Amino acid sequence: MTQRTLVLLKPDAVRRGLVGEIVGRIERKAGWRITALELRTLDRATLEQHYAEHVGRPFYEPLVEFMQSGPIVALVAEGERVIEGIRTLAGPTDPIAAAPGSIRGDFGTITRENLIHASDSEESAERELKLFFPGIA
């Protein structure tokens, strides 16, 4: 089943020069394609909407601050089981638990700065795509 998902390459990925490597891994997966890509700096209002479910949790403020600390790359990926697939490609948020070959397993350093966000379900993808790419969603 063809799906569409949001991927965010976080400020640490941009700062460390990993955008090409991560985008390349997505592009090399047979049947997946990138249909939109944009470098942008996120404002607090967008981040508050994106992370609304985490308000009040101890990591919320540090996460919002981190996501505002530099530019990010937002992209739309499409393909067969792309939601599940990109989350597998990303690996768990803890880089020590992430398998070698995954983005976080190969490049992750700390849990809070974990390089990449990928929608976790079709519902999340739909909501997140409307927020980041309203003209596409």
Automatic annotation (TrEMBL):
GO molecular function, one term: ATP binding
SUPFAM superfamilies registered for this protein in UniProt: Nucleoside diphosphate kinase, NDK
Cofactor: Mg(2+)
Active-site residues, record numbering mapped to chain: 117 (pros-phosphohistidine intermediate)
Major localization listed first in the record, in broad terms: cytoplasm
Cited InterPro entries: NDK-like_dom (IPR034907), NDK-like_dom_sf (IPR036850), Nucleoside_diP_kinase (IPR001564), Nucleoside_diP_kinase_AS (IPR023005)
Catalyzed reaction equations: a ribonucleoside 5'-diphosphate + ATP = a ribonucleoside 5'-triphosphate + ADP; a 2'-deoxyribonucleoside 5'-diphosphate + ATP = a 2'-deoxyribonucleoside 5'-triphosphate + ADP
GO cellular component, one term: cytoplasm
Keywords: ATP-binding, Cytoplasm, Kinase, Magnesium, Metal-binding, Nucleotide metabolism, Nucleotide-binding, Phosphoprotein, Transferase
Signal peptide: none
EC code(s) of this entry: 2.7.4.6
Role summary: Major role in the synthesis of nucleoside triphosphates other than ATP. The ATP gamma phosphate is transferred to the NDP beta phosphate via a ping-pong mechanism, using a phosphorylated active-site intermediate.
Family indicated by similarity: Belongs to the NDK family.
Summary of subunit composition and partner proteins: Homotetramer.
UniProt name for this protein: Nucleoside diphosphate kinase
